[in-house]
Here is the input.
Amino acid sequence: MSENPPTSNGANGDEPSGSRLGDGERAANGRFAAGNRVGRGNPLGGVVARKRTAMLKAIRRKDVRQAIATLRAIMSSPTAKDSDRLAAAREVLDRGCGKAAPADYDERIERLEESAGIKPEFDWNAYRRTAEAEKKRTS
Here is the structure.
C-alpha cells in the first residue's frame, strides 16, 4: 500500500517501477515539471510548424480560387462518379460553412448542463412534449 495519495493522472500515488524520472521531475499535480528529461513535447513539432508556415506563405488567392473551381467542376460534372461529386460538395460545404455538428449535440449539451447543475435557457423537453401534443391534436 502506498503512503502517497492518489493523483489525478492515474498513477495512484506510486511511481511506476523502473521509471526513468528522477526526483523533482514531476510537479505537485503529477504532470511533468519544467526542465524534465522525458516530457519535452513533440520533437518534430517545430519541423511541422515550419513546413506549415512555408506552405501557407506559398498559397496565393489564385490557388484557392482554382481549388474551389476544381471542386465546383467535379460537383457539376455529369461524367464524375456520384461519390466524387458528393465528396467535392462535402469539402466545399465543410470549408465554407464549417463542419456540421453531431446530430445529438443538443441532447449532449442538455446532459452536461444537467450534470453541472446549470438550468438550461430553453426547456427542449417541454417544447418536444408540446409539439407532440399539437401533432396528435391536428392529426
